Amino acid sequence: MAAARALTTTAGVLAMRSFATLLVTFIGVILAISAQAADYDWSKVDQAIGRKGADQPGGVHKYSFPRSDLQVTVDGTAIKPALALGGWVAFQQMGSGAMFMGDLVLTDTEISPVMKRLIDDGVEITAIHNHLIRTSSPVFYMHVGGTGDPVKFAQTLNAALALSKTPLSAPPASSPPPPLDLDTASVEKTLGFNGKANGGVYQFSVPRAEAITERGMPVPPALGTGIAINFQPTGAGKAAITGDFVLLGSEVNPVLKTLREHGIEVTALHSHMIEDSPHLFFMHFWANDDAQKLAQGLRAALDHANVKRGS
To answer: For residue 267, which of 136, 79, 134, 88 has the smallest C-alpha distance?
Structure first.
């Protein structure tokens, strides 16, 4: 019996040492990747894509392509680019190359030429769909991605977007925008998350609690896995809201039901990625009503999703 206990103890010690070694190695790899991403020189990618990107958490370098050229309304409400017309592309270093994802905002006549240019150069198309309904003119969203040389991808993206009317030059520096006609503190308190003003819109990005990967690579919220909630003031305490809930399959119908019970219309349900794990569904929504009432409905819907609190 004593010999058996000794063997069991020895095996347990060896297992714990092995686990500790693996844990230290894993942490070392993560730290190395983080340090490498933080030191990556994105200037050549900036030059190739035609504008300067912004560093985001998780080693992500992101470019915004707002469709300021489009005049789009929904039910008579003019849509600001930051509400629902903000195309973007983001890169994350992967070894000597990068993984990138993006969401290009296109009109119906722009889809085919932009797609041809992208696929000719090896860019993957992962989704094409609407986000809103009843728009005054057709607007679609083309989700793209790939892994490889970020400079080449940036050159391809620039050439493809040139086939659309997407403004390619960086917008001129503007004076500080006027304050939003919105009780942002009250909305933040109700939602339980902090937002930020951008282009006349108050924006929230709510990360999911679980780790998300695409082909085994981590996909942080800045690469498109954060729940997006946008408020555009429409006067008299009201706001137009849109965005997308990022959901597991088991969360889809509880969230959908809750949104509709609170007068928030569900306008689209689809996937943005192909080989993500866990597989995610993106639920887009729309309403134009009392901002606090809508915040309460959104809060109730968030309670059905596994989100990371305190962000």
So the answer is: 134
